[in-house]
Amino acid sequence: MNPGDWIRRKGSHIIPFHHGIYIGSNHVVHASGDTLRVEVAPFDLWAKGREVFLVKSAPIHKEFQIVQRAMSMVGKKFSMSGLNCEHLASYAFNGEGISTSIKTGITIVILSIAGILLLVKE
Known about the structure:
Blueprint: E1 6-10, E2 17-24, E3 27-32, E4 37-42, H1 43-47, E5 52-56, H2 63-72, H3 85-94, H4 100-121
Antiparallel strand pairs: 1-2, 1-5, 2-3, 3-4
């Protein structure tokens, strides 16, 4: 693992994955569900003994910029819809905070509601 790498580990039964940015020196910046803030955590504490996956390797000469963006978010409030762990990692990695998990979840909810409405209508 190298500074600036976007990583994720298995999450809980509610959240399938937890994302973070590896910043070097065995530390990760992540949006903590425990403190409800973006924080720096030791890698082992963040990983919680679970398998860690590389989402994207930091491009050469972009490592510092990615780490700097991640560090600029430390202390900010966590929000499932506005600043979750995937938003943070996406923002640090490419400058745009996007959470495909949230988009997928919203799509599933909308489709479920539409399906229920069709059943009720019949």
